[in-house]
Specification:
The chain is an alpha+beta fold. It contains 12 helices and 13 strands. It has an 8-stranded mixed barrel. Strands 1-2 form a two-stranded antiparallel ribbon.
Length: 406
């Protein structure tokens, strides 16, 4: 018979085995924890190193981009977006690559970057920007008009009232203008300008397109809501019609394709666009805004008086208009029309002060020094690019109110 009596040495042995197993398990766990920590540390170190490399690559690309070294920037940023995925650095890298390719006129390449930006960052504001640029790239590519329109409309819906909605509305206007629908395009530019934040880059884009469209329309033979068709009567002349309808002779002739005033013959039907223009010159923004009543017609860049010869703020009206004026320099020298020294260029619009204390010799004129536009460098008179001064000259009549503001 087997001896089943309790033996203390057996219990000790069992306890020893159990204790050994527990210790072994604890050691194993400790080793695993240490190994796990080491692996985690290694992973974090690798991640940190990858992030550092990503940041450095982005910083290099951004610095080159900001310095205008776009080809070098494109190389750095291309390497970044190839090796990395969704991050703030990749997002801006794609954006900058899209801009670089657009500036170079490589719209097919730009499209690839903007499409990726729209897809990978669909939940971020970048998607609105990318959607607009996709439309722009399609606009620039032959035969892609319908896709351009689709993405512009999508941008307007995504970015309701925002800057990219403004730019997309301008894009839709350009598409209409390319179809010959200049009035409809003008209306969209006006809508975009009204949507835009005043002074923003998109506002400037909208008002430039608006101004260019307004000028095209008014100088064309196209009948619009603000123009009239008039049948010339006996005794009518270009001068008398200009006075009667408050328009310039040049505008009347150009809008009707008439080279010689004698072409305004009895019984001929002509287009006339009466306007109540007024001018606001803002010294702080170096702009001359031509408005029809309260609506902006066109905004022109200008130069103004230097600090030692400031352009005097106040109210004036156009009193004289001269083509190819003679310039009487401050030194008393008489400079004839057409001279390369004639600082008045090809046009002069003399201003009559309407308030006491304002200078009587101020005028808006063209300039032979286009680099002075956007600067305070004249002897007091507002100056314009020559083509702009000639255009304004043909639009405004004697008596047009002019306000010069700080």
């Amino acid at each position: 018979m087997t001896d089943m009596r309790f033996r203390p040495e057996r219990l000790g042995t069992s306890r020893g085995v159990l204790k050994g197993k527990i210790i072994g398990a604890l050691v194993a766990i400790l080793v695993l924890v240490i190994l796990g920590g080491a692996v985690l540390w290694l992973l974090k170190a690798l991640e940190a190193r990858a992030t550092e490399k990503l940041v450095n690559q982005y910083a290099l690309g951004k610095r080159l981009f900001d310095e205008g070294k776009h080809q070098d920037a494109a190389q750095a940023l291309s390497a970044l977006v190839r090796t990395a995925r969704k991050s703030e650095y990749v997002e801006d890298g794609l954006r900058k690559l899209g801009e670089i390719e657009e500036k170079a006129g490589n719209y097919k390449n730009a499209l690839l970057y903007w499409q990726r930006l729209a897809q990978e960052y669909a939940d971020r504001p970048a998607a609105r920007e990318a959607t607009y640029h996709i439309g722009l790239c399609f606009e620039k590519e032959p035969g892609q008009r319908s896709k351009a329109e689709e993405f512009y409309q999508r941008t307007v819906a995504l970015d309701t009232g925002g800057p990219y909605a403004v730019l997309a509305t301008c894009g839709l206007g350009r598409l209409l203008e390319s179809d010959g629908k200049i009035v409809e395009a003008r209306d969209l530019y006006k809508k975009a300008f009204q949507m835009a934040q005043q002074g923003s880059s998109e506002s400037k884009e909208a008002v430039k397109l608006l101004g260019d469209a307004n000028v095209k329309i008014i100088f064309s033979g196209r009948k619009t809501d603000d123009s009239v068709l008039y049948t010339v009567k006996p005794g009518d002349t270009v001068t008398s019609l200009g006075v009667k309808f408050n328009t310039t002779q040049a505008l009347l002739l150009k809008a009707n394709g008439i080279a010689d005033p004698a072409g305004v013959r009895v019984n001929r039907t002509i287009k006339i666009t009466p306007k109540k223009f007024n001018i606001l010159i803002k010294k702080s923004t170096f702009t001359l805004t031509l408005s029809d009543d309260t609506e902006v017609f066109k905004v022109y860049p200008i130069g103004i008086g230097a600090p030692e010869h400031p352009t005097a703020a106040g109210k004036y009206k156009i009193e004289t208009k001269m083509v190819n004026p003679t310039w009487y320099s401050p030194s008393g020298k008489v400079v004839p029309p057409g001279s390369p020294e004639n600082e008045l260029g090809t046009r002069w619009m003399g201003l009559k002060p309407l308030e006491p204390g304002l200078p009587p010799d101020l005028g808006i004129h063209a300039t032979i020094n286009p680099s002075s536009i956007g600067w305070a460098s004249s002897r007091g008179c507002p100056r314009m690019y020559q083509a702009d001064a000639e255009e304004l000259f043909d639009l405004v009549t004697l008596g047009t109110p002019v306000t010069i503001a700080e």
